Amino acid sequence: MSAARPNDMRVEEILAELVAVDSTSSRSNADIVRLIAARAERAGLCARLFPYTDEAGVKKLQLVAAYPKSFEDGGEVELVLVGHTDTVPFDPAWDEALRLTEREGKLYGRGACDTKGFIAAALAAVEATDLSKLTRPLALVFTADEEVGCLGAKRLAEGRAFRARHAVVGEPTSLVPVRAGKGYCLAEVRVRGREAHSAHPSLGASAITRAARLVSRVERVAEELKGDAHAAFDPPHTTLNVGLIRGGTAKNIIPGECRFTLEWRPVPGQPPERVLELLGREIEEMRREEPEFDCEVRVLRLDGGAETDAGAPLVRALEELTGKRAGAVSFGTEAPQMAELGAAAVVFGPGDIRVAHRTGEFVPASELREAASILGRVIERFCAPRHQ
Ligand SMILES: [Zn+2]
User: Which one from 96, 127, 146, 361 is the annotated catalytic residue?
Assistant: First the structure.
């Protein structure tokens, strides 16, 4: 089978179509998924929609488009290309947000980089492939609600919508294959005190002072976590962040309550609960020092890191096709859910994560075309291998 080269203009046209549809996570993504499903069907895939209603009552759609058409729900594919259809919100003053605009080789628009560029490249690659030559099943999977916690991918994983041996998870990695990612965890810590008139501190107990003492212990936990290093990452350890803090009601009242968020990004191999255990130990020590110390930890998210073996065939193939060594990223992706579905997952896509989520987000046109071409070759290697 000759290496099909996707039509360069086509991938940009597809991206322009995708960018024109506002698919901010808070809205329904039905329009963009229907558009993608229609394209996939025209290309010869069978498209299956997986609808659900999100927490706010908004209808969401996910798409599994597979070849051959006889592919059944829950079946196994050789290769899956996965991209999320939702984007972060955009500033209404950014007038290119929904109108793909090219300047100096860069394509600007919301989602151009994260992750509609990858979706366009995957569609262009499939459209340029002679599917009748494929001897092993292929699927394109397009998810919802990635930006708000990989909620769609988690549903697909729980529902065992399919199984896969290899997965390319689309995220802007500047065309560097990424085989390891940190997890993402979040908790809210609520510290209670006792309100009193600030002229009589001994009648109360300050929740803010208590929280401050706990936060400085969190810094110690962060230091301790440096001992569990994973060389593939920069920084090479689990990081912590107290990103929000709120407490008290007035300047002359001893504060009765203080809340803060604790976010951590665990390295693969470290249980995501590890930070909770260390935090729990610090809280116990504070209780021993002050029996009235009152604190509650509410876990909001607990996603561990994920890692694919450096010698996995997809890692090797993408290293060879890109000429770049596989690395690691510190942001969350849908790779862990693909691993749950059986796949050796590699994160890969056009565009730079550092410009994602910004006004003026863009993908370099040359990277977009290159991505389509590389994905086409990955499809051939895995789904139409010459030596079987
Ligand atoms: Zn993304």
Answer: 146
